[in-house]
Amino acid sequence: MAHTKSRTAQRREKASNLVQQRTIVLPLDLETEQFDLLIQVAGFYNRMWSSLVSWCDSNRTVNRTRMQKDNYRRLREQYPQLPSQFVCVGMRDAAGAMRSWNSNRPKRKWNMRARRKAMTVNYDLRLMSVRGNMLTLSTLQGEKRIHTLMPEIPLWFDTLYPTRKLNAAKLMLDPKNHTARIALIYRLSDTFTEQARLDVLGVDLGQHSLAMDSRGGESKANNIWGVKRRYAHNRKTLQEKGTRSAHRRLKAMKGREERFIRDVNHCVSKRLASTPNIGYIAFEDLTYIRRQARKGTSTGRRRRNMLNQWSFSQLQEFTTYKAVRNNIRILMVDPSYTSQRCNRCGYVDQRNRNHARFDCKRCGWSDNADHNAALNIRDRAIKSLHEEQAKTHIPG
Ligand SMILES: [Zn+2]
Q: What is the CATH number of domain 194-221+263-392?
């Protein structure tokens, strides 16, 4: 079965990939006309960005397809001075800003109402190029591209990152002092092969335990369900009361419960991200499981229940942040049959699994069921890494 990764899964993998980028900032020596032209670009860029952010605010989405459909033509008409590629870059930029606003301020989601004032412009490779020390930047429609000589890349940067590829840049203008700098953002290509030698940690979420990894590390769920049940019981009692003070206590309790989940997720993600000698952490694409569950395909009732009661998405998000700091990448794999497949012989059968136990009906292999699933997740991730590597090594 072909598995198309959900958007969340794609975003998470990408977020953990940021570690493979390095940035160097260089001062630019621009002529006055060049500077003035770029100030104009920044002005238009900022207005377009603000308009995109308020679109996200009011439509409560960062979906790129919708964003493009609703805004592209309008922005092209509104800012004919900007080359169209700036609109695409601006959309990516605004969506990213919106996303980090939402995740940093969960209480004020979709309420960014920002105006962009900083005189910075994001460039992608369609809008710029670097040949030796010569930097070329697009400006306004109908104007010539700007050519300017940059200073040498410092030796330390060359030594640390000999194999790198320019990916994007950020132009920073200071109108007060009439100075300009450019941040060149490089993608590092050799970390991949370096990391491929490291181990992959497969993590199974929300089956019997809260989290079980392929090395046998476990975060148990027992005490958690006790706490959750207590909250549910108190909630019911307060709801039945229905008084104003009950309402207030209900609200406070909701906050406490959310903090409880958050604390546990912080704990578990910290444990996962500090596993020694791993280059990757592999998770199942849970959004995909939910979608399958809605379609009524075979996902255990217990699991569906657990997925609905616990914020595993938050757990994956926290793990991603912490993993990045430890130079660990996140991989999201196809979740189908990970709990029914025997890791030893590959035989898939629903009857292999009996609650917390796994006993293969074909080869007789026995294991903790969650651990067996975690091993399957790990192996699936290793397989996808090999495929990725094979793809990047095809010449041309
Ligand atoms: Zn078997």
A: 3.30.420
**Other CB atoms closer than 10 Å to residue 356's CB: what's the count?**
12
| Ligand 1 centroid distance, CA of 375 (Å) | 13
Averaged in consecutive runs of 10 residues, what is the pLDDT profile of the chain (396 residues)? 73 68 89 95 94 92 91 93 93 91 84 83 95 94 90 78 86 94 84 61 91 94 83 89 89 90 95 92 84 58 71 93 90 91 91 91 92 94 78 50
Residues around ion ligand 1, judged by CB within 5 A, are 342, 344-345, 347, 360, 362-363, 365
Task: Convert 238-253 to b/e letters by CB count within 10 Å (16 or more is b).
Answer: beeeeeeeeeebbeee
Q: What is the pLDDT of residue 212?
A: 96
DSSP state of 5: P
Q: 349 alpha carbon to ligand 1 midpoint, in Å? A: 10
215 CA to centre of ligand 1 in angstroms: 19
Question: Ligand 1 centroid to 296 CA: how many Å?
Answer: 27
Residue with tokens 């080359």, as numbered in its chain: 83
pTM, rounded to two decimals: 0.55
**Centroid of ligand 1 to alpha carbon of 362 (angstroms):** 5
**What are the residue ranges spanned by the domains of the chain?**
21-187, 194-221+263-392
